[in-house]
Design brief:
By secondary structure, the chain is of the alpha+beta class. It contains two helices and two strands, in the order ββαα. It has one domain (4-65). A two-stranded parallel ribbon has the order 1-2. It is globular, with a radius of gyration of 14 Å. Bound molecules: nicotinamide-adenine-dinucleotide (NAD). Nicotinamide-adenine-dinucleotide is lined by residues 6-11, 27-29, 49-53.
């Protein structure tokens, strides 16, 4: 399988992309950038693990955790 790994790197330098994968620095909330990835690559399945996952950050910078959702397409 070919793997396309996307990460904004908001969480710091990349740590876990599989050897041989294509890496794209993309914010998943940036719809045009995401659509460009889907246009460039034939993608059959998506596994989504991106998150602001740190509880301490959710307390110190709560506004990040209330970002608006995408408008309906
Ligand atoms: N680590 C744990 O103990 C644990 C436990 C339960 C659930 N989870 C869940 O598993 C998933 C991965 O956790 P992790 O420990 O690998 O977290 P992590 O912080 O190491 O990785 C999350 C990655 O998401 C990226 N990211 C954040 N916002 C993004 C955006 N808008 N666009 C693109 N990339 C973005 C960050 O840069 C980071 O590299 C998360 O959904 C987390 O909530 C983790």
């Amino acid at each position: 399988m070919s793997v396309i790994a996307l990460d904004s790197l908001f969480g710091g330098p990349s740590r876990g992309h599989p050897p041989g994968s294509v890496f794209c620095q993309v914010d998943l909330a940036d719809r045009p950038a995401l659509e460009a990835v889907f246009t460039k690559h034939k993608i059959d399945a998506v596994m989504h693990f991106a998150a602001e996952a740190l509880v301490a950050k959710s307390v110190s910078e709560p506004s990040i955790f209330y970002a608006p959702t995408w408008p309906a397409a």
